[in-house]
Design goal:
The protein has helices spanning about 10-25, 40-50, 70-90, 100-115, 130-135, 165-170, 200-215, 225-235, 240, 270-280, 295-305, 320-330, 335-345, 350-365; strands spanning about 1-5, 30-35, 55, 95-100, 120, 140-145, 160, 190-195, 220-225, 245-250, 265, 285, 310. It has about 375 residues and is of the alpha/beta class. It folds into two domains: about 1-165 and about 350-365, 3-Layer(aba) Sandwich (Rossmann fold); about 170-345, 3-Layer(aba) Sandwich (Rossmann fold). The chain is elongated.
Length: about 375
């Protein structure tokens, strides 16, 4: 197939798109692919690094307040639709997929006006403003959480398929990477991290809980985030830096690779993280970021906790004791681990990319 994919702004929009492209390549289903993003967006770095053809349009989001700037944004939107139409006519795609972010609004809407089959993918429980807008025009709305179905009035278009990142994670096998961090590959290990940039409240709680973690019968990996690492290290007593069961790191490249070696994940509840965790059947303790739009991470986290696959600690309630006690209650009880792991597997979608590809091929064949 010839496919245009568009999504940008955050990794949560970009990585599922990349996972879809990768799976299409693995199945030898791509004749040609083009990714449309913005020049300044994160996608420009991620996509070009993978040597995927990449073109840009200029677009930005509307301000939430009525301002003169929104007039300029509206003009930019209509201009970006024109640019998108030109790109689409030149590329001649069989299907166009949008994974969220302002850039996908222009690209997918332009494809709709040109009568090209269109699909959007919504990663979160609460749909983004772009996908809500596009839902009126696209042929199919693919969701990763069943709770998102209520966000769209176009029920007949909705298909539940999960998040393509899940299928990437499901393919990863246990690989003893813990040895790379001077930990015992055969000892139960928990990973605690606050996202790619780290999170100060989580870091503070972990630092205060280090005396308890140092005495635990399990191992703990603590990822601070690059920008926080030096400051965190200065606050930690040397005996904890040298503890055999503790590894403190600024960042882990290709973090999904270590997931099969873990017994528990503690961190934020972004859609990509949840897709990866549940695909592998890992128990989790979520500390949702309260700073995201519509507090969607809390809704994401609760949707997993309702199935018994995770516990949720609000950032405002986070303390060192609460963090350690919740971790220990899972890590020290194999029966609890097994129950949470089974619940996690039950809501995971390890074939998410293939399900999305089936939607695409169905539309192409129909057209």
């Amino acid at each position: 197939m010839r496919i245009i994919v568009s999504g940008g702004g955050t990794g949560g929009h970009i990585y599922p798109a990349m996972a879809l492209i990768k799976r299409l390549q693995e199945r030898d289903m791509i004749e040609s692919v083009l990714y449309v993003g913005t020049e300044k967006g994160l996608e420009s770095k991620i996509v070009t690094r993978e040597n995927i053809p990449f073109k840009t349009i200029k677009i930005s989001g509307f301000k939430r307040k009525l301002t003169l700037q929104n007039v300029k944004v509206l003009q930019m939107f209509f201009s970006s639709i024109g640019k998108s139409k030109k790109i689409i006519r030149e590329f001649k795609p069989d299907v166009v997929v949008g994974t969220g972010g302002y850039v996908s609004s222009a690209v997918v809407y332009a494809a709709h006006t040109l009568k090209i089959p269109t699909v959007i993918h919504e990663q979160n429980t609460i749909a983004g403003i772009t996908n809500k807008f596009l839902g009126h025009f696209v042929n199919k709305i693919v969701i990763a959480f069943k709770q998102a179905e209520d966000q769209f009035p176009e029920k007949q278009k909705i298909v539940f398929a999960g998040n393509p990142r899940a299928q990437e994670a499901a393919a990863i096998k246990k690989n003893d990477r813990l040895k790379d961090f001077k930990l015992d590959a055969n000892k139960p290990t928990v990973l605690i991290f606050g996202g790619s940039r780290g999170a100060t409240p989580i870091n503070k709680a972990v630092i205060a809980a280090l005396p308890d973690f140092a005495k635990a019968d399990f191992q703990m990996m603590f990822v601070t985030g690059r920008v926080h690492y030096d400051g965190v290290i200065k606050q930690i007593d040397d005996k904890y830096l040298q503890a055999r069961n503790i590894a403190i790191l600024p960042y882990i490249d290709n973090m999904p690779e270590i997931l099969p070696d873990l017994k528990l994940i503690v961190g934020r509840s972004g859609a990509t993280s949840i897709a990866e965790i549940t695909a592998l059947g890992l128990p989790a303790i979520f500390i949702p970021s309260p700073y995201v739009t519509h507090d969607h991470q809390t809704v994401n986290a609760n949707s997993v906790a309702e199935n018994g696959a995770a516990k949720v600690i609000a950032e405002s309630d986070l303390t060192a004791d609460k963090l350690f006690n919740n971790v220990a209650s899972i890590m020290n009880d194999q029966q609890v681990q097994a129950k949470m792991s089974q619940a996690s597997k039950e809501i995971g979608v390890p074939d998410a990319s293939d399900k999305l590809i089936a939607v695409l091929t169905g539309l192409i064949n129909k057209s």
